[in-house]
Design a protein that fits this description.
alpha/beta, 35% helix, Nucleotidyltransferase, domain 5, 8 helices, 226 residues
Length: 226
């Protein structure tokens, strides 16, 4: 099975093609262009490198949020368009779950993706490695940073990643002390989105392009203004 995975929820966009969980090709992008300008060229480039087309894909995995509201819409609408044209399923994946998967290393137990949600809030969760699965210990959501950190066990080692880390470094240090770990990882998560897409397929969680919904966790600024 060949799967195209897309992330436009983070500042740095990425696209990957996987076959049976193995990475075939990847395109990562940073810079001044927004996701609406660069996503389709990235998809075209990664498919051209493999000599494949959209119709060769068996499914589409997409980071469905949380993250940039505009980025979520760009990724979801683009992937739904691919699904509609090809008749293949869409697999909506949590951005936080993909970030947590990026932290998974032998011997580590607790993983915390921490993304800047603006307005002095974070998108965050705490996952525990239990066997082959990552289980939510603190649910995914939008949090006041102090409230979220207070929900985490301060006596256990926590591996952390995300755009919220540099913003709240002092708070993190005050809550976790020497128990915090900040491993160096790239910001690109399309490969992890693809892996989680395969997990959904294995769990018979295929969704049609009509059923895939974004994960916002809170209303957009436009909605809050009404």
């Amino acid at each position: 099975m060949i799967l195209l995975a897309v992330d436009t929820t983070t500042p740095d966009g990425s696209v990957a093609v996987l076959e049976d969980r193995r990475l075939l090709a990847e395109f990562n992008s940073t810079g001044s262009l927004n996701h609406s300008q660069r996503l389709l060229p990235m998809v075209r480039s990664v498919l051209a490198a493999l000599g494949k087309t959209i119709r060769d894909m068996d499914a589409f995995a997409v980071a469905a949020g949380p993250g940039s509201f505009t980025g979520i819409r760009v990724g979801m609408s683009t992937v739904k368009g691919f699904a509609y044209a090809s008749g293949k399923p869409v697999l909506p994946v949590s951005t936080l779950s993909a970030l947590a998967l990026k932290l998974r290393i032998p011997g580590a137990r607790l993983f915390c993706p921490l993304q800047d949600a603006k307005k002095n809030e974070v998108y965050a969760a705490l996952f525990e490695n239990r066997g082959r699965r990552l289980t939510e210990v603190v649910p995914q959501g939008s949090y006041d940073p102090d409230h979220f950190f207070s929900l985490c066990p301060a006596h256990r080692v926590v591996h952390m990643i995300g755009t919220g880390v540099p913003l709240y470094r002092e708070k993190i240090a005050s809550y976790f002390g020497d128990k915090i770990r900040l491993p160096q990882r790239s910001p690109f998560i399309a490969f992890e989105v693809g892996l989680l897409g395969f997990d959904m397929i294995a769990a018979s969680g295929r969704k049609s392009h009509f059923e895939a919904e974004p994960l916002y966790f809170r209303r957009s600024q436009a909605e809050e203004g009404h």
